[in-house]
Amino acid sequence: MAMKILVVGGGGREHAIAEALSRNGNCELYAVMGKKNPGIAKLCKKYLINSETDINAAAEFAYNNSIEYAVIGPEAPLEAGISDLLEEKGIACIGPSRMAARLETDKAFCRNMMEKHGVAGCPLYRVFHDAEEAALFIRSYDGDLAVKPIGLTGGKGVKIMGEHFDAEGAIEYITEIGGDVVLEERLIGEEFTLMAFVDGTHIVPMPLVQDHKRAFAGDVGPNTGGMGSYTMPDHMMPFVTEEDYDKALAIMEDVVASLRSEDVIYRGMLYGQFMNTSEGPKVIEFNARFGDPEAMNLLTLLSSDLCDIVRKIAEGRLSQSDVMFENKATVCKYLVPEGYPDSPNPGDLITIKDAGEAFSYYANVTEEDNNLYTQTSRTLAFVGMADTLTEAEKIAEEAAASVEGNIRYRTDIGTQEVLDKRIAHMKEIRQ
């Protein structure tokens, strides 16, 4: 019998998940998505267009179609408790419970938990629920701070003093968002992402990835959901030592164990975003799901059967031997509507002339009469995969450059020039 799997979410990340699952010919796919993703729709036997946070509708759809497993893409349905509800209905969920997902959905909870259990890599921080108290702290603090709204922000709400605004700008921002905020020491270094599959006990890491949040080339402009990302053939980063890597993985293992000690079982994907500092890796944040765009790099590289990984996570018996990746480099470049993220221009026709060898993943795009049109968020992504970073970047760049329409993308992602700057910066701060 076919293995029935539900994918919740309709973005580029979920297209990559669906694509990876579909490589198993014995997997029958279903989806719940807020907007129709044409890439996902083509892979599914049946799909429901409905709000992803309407967990009752999603659960009813899953139950009526005899779904056995569900893979949750975005964070919002996790916060709404979709995993808890599906599990109650006997559907194994690859996505943490509402309580476990607080690692992402409640930044104050995350920091307090790390401090309580002595988990390494926690920056100096203070939690505030009053804008005036936060303002007093900022004015008395000698240095720059990261300003993090406590709830979900879609990757766009965190702002840094010294980059996005000065102290008075930070105070104004905190007042605008209502005063519920975590203030943290500004971390200086190089960011990297370590993601892992977690079955409640066992943690199986994936290759390291570096994401590019800033809207424009040269890492300038506002933060976005992510403009692209890259991986290296050895699954490491040249500015991350083996010792750095081991520390980062140990932090993630300690976080899962700390939750388990409080009878909170973490099952699904765990995303650790780290800043590699002069003192080693510090935790910027955790996400309770695959990153977007990083999922597109990693799932393109995945050579193991994702359906088998899903089943073993659900059964609590995942091992390192179940998860294998190609020893190749990948570069992911996101195309976005002109004006993104502040004032995106939707409804424009785009034409893909020649994707070449690149893997294509649709995100926030509509299809009418075989034509593609932009919407208000990231449109689609191309992933190049090759033996070297230079070759992978060339594949992704040629595909992205072939697209005609009112869109743009970052041409610098995955280039050797950008990587060399990262390496030089890391050497400089560790001298």
TrEMBL record:
Q: What InterPro entries does the record tag this protein with?
A: ATP-grasp, ATP_grasp_subdomain_1, PreATP-grasp_dom_sf, PRibGlycinamid_synth_ATP-grasp, PRibGlycinamide_synth, PRibGlycinamide_synth_C-dom, PRibGlycinamide_synth_C_sf, PRibGlycinamide_synth_CS
User: What are the alphabetically sorted keywords of the record?
Assistant: ATP-binding, Ligase, Magnesium, Manganese, Nucleotide-binding, Purine biosynthesis
Reactions accelerated catalytically: 5-phospho-beta-D-ribosylamine + glycine + ATP = N(1)-(5-phospho-beta-D-ribosyl)glycinamide + ADP + phosphate + H(+)
Look at the named UniProt entry and state the broad enzyme category this protein falls under: ligase
Q: Name what cofactor the protein needs.
A: Mn(2+); Mg(2+)
| Biological process per Gene Ontology, one example term | 'de novo' IMP biosynthetic process
User: Where's the ATP-grasp domain?
Assistant: 111-315
Name this protein carries in UniProt: Phosphoribosylamine--glycine ligase
Taxonomic source organism? Methanoplanus endosymbiosus
Which gene name does the record give?
Answer: purD
